[in-house]
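Hi! If you just cloned this repository, the fastest way to understand the data is to look at a raw example. We've pasted two of them here, unedited. The first protein comes first, obviously.
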Amino acid sequence: MSENYRSREERRQVQKKKQPASKKTKPKGKTSFFRKFLISCLLLGIVGLVAGVATFFVMIKDAPKLEKAKLVNPLSSKIYDKDGNLVYEYGKEKRTNVTYDQIPKLVENAFLATEDSRFYEHSGVDFKGTARAVLVSLKGDYGSQGGSTITQQVIKNYFLSMEKTSKRKVQEIYLAYKLEQQYSKHEILEMYLNKINLGNRSYGIATAAQNYYGKELKDLTLPEVAMLAGLPKAPNNYDPTKKENVQRATERRNTVLNLMNRHGYITKAEMEEASKVPVDKNIKSAAELQAMPHTAFMDAVVKEVEKEIPDVNIGSDGLEIYTTLDPKAQDFADQLLNANIINYPNDKFQGAFTFMDTKTGEVRAIGSGRGENKAVFKGHNMAIELDRAAGSTMKPIFDYAPAIEYLKWATYHQIDDSPFKYSTGQEVRNADRSHLGPISMREALTKSRNIPAIKTAKEVGISKSKEFSEKLGITFNVAPTESTAIGTNEASPTEIAGAYAAFGNDGKYTKPHFVKKVVYPDGKSQSFGQKPKPVMADSTAYMITDMLRSVVTSGTGTSANVASLDVAGKTGTTNYSSKQLAQYGIPESATRDSWFAGYTPQYTMAVWTGYTKDGKDEYISSKNTKIAQLIFKEMMSKMATDKSRFKMPGSVIQEGSELRIKGEKRDSSPNTSVPDTTEQPKQDQQQKNEEEKNQEELKKQEELKKQEEQKKQDELKKQEELKKQEEQKKQDEQNKQNEQNNGNGQGTPNPPTNGGDQGTPNP
């Protein structure tokens, strides 16, 4: 047992000896800790990676799809004048797309050098380029290197919002890689250059070239390209049209030139030469860039297109709209209303008019308000939307033309201008409160008599007159009555002008229009041109024209006459009701609306003047009723170049100064001596004989006149000859007397002359 005990004791001693040794095994514990730490880090890394991947997939899960439809840019529509010259680009974003083949190498190089010099080397994201951009920025050369690739910018511009979050950045990187897999570099560059915002509502490089320089891309110079390439970073800060930006724009332009040189696109000499050019050279002014020219006309154009093509979006569908606009006529139209050509009584006095081609119906210019009432885009346009009583300008349309068309009246047809009442019992009055008794239709129209006009419309039939007027483009918001015959119906200058043009176009009505055609981006086009429609006989049109000539030569419209032109036209005025006169305290002679509508073989124009509101001081005085005529006269004098005259058609026969329809029974009336007969062949032969006789008489008179002139010339020559002979005789007698005096040593000798043998001797 002792043995065993000792053995146990020994074993214990051995164990005790071993225990201190076991406490000193620290290296084994350190190894275990680091192992655990590394394992923990690895696990954390794996977890982080998994979490990162999971987060990445979560972030890109709702990333927008690269739909091709989203790569289609909204395109502004271009509006051209009658000669095909660009007038304005309409749209929220002015944009013109170009293909890669249309992009000059100079333009491509400028943007690559500035925005993404490794564009053709990376696959959508350039980590190396981004790192370099950060380092360059840290050195203080801010903005000389871009942080995002062109591909990333395409993604931002087409698919993502402008918010700055890590999620959006992850989506940007992801989509940039996908875009590079689906499209070529050239396609991506094309997307970029067609989308970028270059300031002043210029989206895309082609639009910017036009807006800033009025040039095509191929015509841009190096300094111009460099200026444009510097804009994407901050368009508002580097816009050289603003004086306060010129210095910044110059520095930015020069940075682009430096980058182009650094990347080998231009030489140092080219860089230095381009840097010397003022950054605002050839730049359009800010006013030119921002202002919509011819606002009222542009408004009418857009409204017409939207009416004819309801499902079109002019601001984004990239249409080419070819209009009827004559810029020179429109400029003068604006001056007529807002310059000092016409002496307007005050700033509240308004005017509106439509100036159009008599034959085609194409509107060349419009006037729409003065001062604060000038037309605004998409606002009230008085030239096309005015609703004011047309007054006596309706008489040729509603009364006398239907009488000629349906009743076959001659211009000398007699109408009794005597006291008359409406069917309601209300008295009808002429403007001068007098009555002329039986007068011709010509005189009734020339002097704008109200009673004959109403009697004429009643004889035609109000419904027939309405039907006739509607064929001339006149609309009726309320059913016509007897008073419509003297112009109570409301109309716009464009409506009235269209109707009058039909008289000047041989009885053919062409609807007034502002647009010739619209061309869609795919090249298809839609015509807006209007075909002339026969709405009355040419005899009716000419007989009205001839009577309206009398209005401007001897009637109420003499202030509108232009001596060198064949002008036909009609005045129109409206008055206030008794209630309005009392309400506003204005004189009984006050006029509410004053019109003049007239035409030549070339142009037709309808003018309205008045006030937009009724008030104590807002009425037309008698001295200002002729302003409408003066506007017409100024416009025609300035723009009309065709001095030809309206030609009488074969369907009309002239009898002295009056006209009648050929083939119709001569108009019998109390005060005409024209014989009444139905023997038409005999009448025609008599008419022919009369015309031949008149021609012979004219020839005789011309011959006698020539003989008389020749006789006068001979007499003058004879008198001149006698005068010369008399003078010569006197001169001979004087010379003879002088010789006698010299020979006798008497009299005063002839004065000496220098250069002759005689004269003052040298001292």
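Ok, and the second one:
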Amino acid sequence: MSMFNPALLGLSHHILQRRAVRLTRESRYLVQYILNQWREKPPSKEEFKKEVDEFYNVFSGLTDLLEVNVEGLARVDGAGAAQRNALHRITDAFNAELNKLQNPEDCSKAKHLVVDFNKGCGFGCQIHHASHCFRLAIASGRILHLRSDKLTYSEQGFVSVFQPLTKCPLPETESEIVDVLWGSPGFETAISVFCPIVEELAQVPEYAHPAVPTSIAEPLNHLHGAPSVWVSGHLSAYLMRLQDGEIATSMDKLLKSIRDPTDPAPVVGVHVRRTDKINTEAKYHKFEEYMYYVDQYYNKLDAERTISAQTEGWRGDDASIPNKPYKRRVLIATDDPHVFKEARDQFGSKVDSDGQPLYEFIGDAHRAESASLSTRYTHGSLLAVVADVIALSHTDHLVCTFSSQIGRLAYELMQTYPLELGDASMRFQSLDDSYYYGGQQQWYQTAIVDDKATNIKAGDRVGVLGNHWNGYAKVILPKSSKEALLPAYKFESDFKRVDFPGFRVNASSLP
């Protein structure tokens, strides 16, 4: 007869699990009670405003605690450290395979994919264009080459800021012109192939986002909440490896000015895009809209600090949690220098319970000025946007608009620091679009429960046009192709495994 060993249960895990169930039920009781009260006896206008404020405060406190406990389930009993270390192993293995493919032992036997970096758009868009082509290159076992002697941003070229992608040159006969296009008849056997912009492809390749290479699919799906974003982030990070020397030193100095490596205090990154695309691709958002989510994040950390004092529920959690509230540190990156004045005017006078400034705003208005439309395409502006996006990616939580390529790029790069951020798939809040990748394949979501009103069954796949961040998402109904607003919780993103024949990560190096 085997002996029962209570140590195997993971005490903290079960304490948090039971608490999460209780908090979920308390949330339901609260909402049901309040709504029934309002239905049976509608309050007056003044009473209603007061009751809404009271309800909002209680409900926010409940959901903060619920989120803290659910996040804790993935950290306690040593699970957080184990997950970060396992993700780090996948990152190392993936990067090693990229480097091996980009720098083969015998360049004369290699095949090549050439991309013109100077797509007619901004830096984030250009990196995403190159990263999309990088997917095609690794899938087909080709070396990626960038044509970038002169950038739209800088006549000094790509390698004035970033490391060369490969040691292998293009064959001399094809160093100037590559006339075989990806997707054209017989391109698979050509030595050198040109990767056009996604808008010019006859059809979206099966390797495009959100495809995840089969050789890393299973461990990545186990350990990370957005594997396709992880892949895109690692490809972009390889493209954006900074040159050693002054540029790398300058970036290191910037990151240390944002956060001392010995200080665990979190920083929230806020990216405000204002000068272009407003009223064409994106809506104008006031700075206070971003700060709403900054406060929401720090309120959650305050709840975590309070409840983690009950140590039985947090054994084996290596997260650094202070015994007093954090100063609310906010890194601002923007193309509008007036945002810094908005921050000071609206939030600079707010103080904490000790009378100390509640917020600390970090950022450089000069970098914002360089992003103005009149000076955007200069070498200085290139350095500024690179500094902004890398700095944003090193924050603990990102508030941005995913209509912005820079916002999406920063989020992607966040996935490449596993030891610091772990699974960073939930470390964001977008004020507008849900995450997408330009030129992606149709990215389906799967219903996890039935929706009787539309006859959607659990397991049905739907196209999702966007999450409205109000509890609802716009979806395309599978049978009628009509659009409908449905509760967003009913759907989860599909996981798309695709065999990349030219890219095989060594299984022995994976967790």
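That's it. A detail worth noticing about the second one: The chain has four domains: 10-73, 97-219, 240-430, 444-493.
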